[in-house]
Design goal:
Number of helices: 4
Strand content: 5-15%
Distance between the termini: 54 Å
Structural class: alpha+beta
Low-confidence stretches: 150-164
Number of strands: 5
Number of domains: 2
Mean pLDDT: 75
Order of helices and strands: HHEEEEEHH
């Protein structure tokens, strides 16, 4: 069904939109105040907050989408690649990024460069590393772009057999058990 509208009707709609935008601009201090209170509540480990608003209230939707902690703040990197930023939404967790390519989630990364959502051992593609550097410079990119790899950690060293001697530093059963633990996390 096609609806024909006059220029006057469209102008009136635009004026209404402009009024809403001006209201939002005036409400920025209140929105910032609500966001600060939410941050304090999260630090105090308050896990649930309910917001009630009229589903038709566009202004309320805009305000809530700007303060909700799980609101998807998307960075479009073009060619079907994007990053979603999520604020920590569970006590003891971190802010994190979700990486998508052509609508499919590839992996997620915590602020400190560790795996989020059990994405251990993922090699971060160059486009994602560049996206982190450009849009989220306060996030840590793991060494060599490999999420939680022993070889990619500055603090950890792999214990290997010495090929010059028949001396085993770590028995095979200990290595097998360690690999099982790493795979299960």
């Amino acid at each position: 069904m096609t609806k024909t509208r006059t220029l006057e009707e469209m102008d009136k709609d635009l004026q209404g939109i402009e009024e809403k935008i001006n209201k939002i601009i005036k409400l920025k201090p209140e929105v910032d105040s609500i966001r600060n209170k939410l941050d304090i509540m999260m630090k105090d480990k308050i896990s649930s907050i309910c917001f009630h608003f009229d589903d038709e209230d566009v202004l309320a939707k805009l305000i809530l989408s700007s303060i909700l902690t799980e609101d998807k703040k998307k960075v479009d990197l073009k060619a079907g690649k994007c990053i979603y930023y999520h604020r920590a939404h569970v006590p003891g967790t971190q802010d994190h990024l979700h990486f998508y390519q052509k609508g499919s989630k590839l992996f997620a990364l915590n602020r400190d460069g560790t795996a989020h959502d059990k994405n251990h051992g993922v090699q971060i593609p160059n486009w994602a590393q560049q996206g982190i550097k450009t849009h989220y410079p306060d996030f840590t990119i793991p060494l060599d772009g490999l999420i939680e790899s022993l070889a990619g950690s500055k603090e950890k060293n792999l214990l290997l057999e010495n090929k010059d001697e028949n001396n085993v530093l770590v028995p095979p059963d200990v290595i097998s058990r360690a690999e099982e633990i790493i795979k299960s996390t």
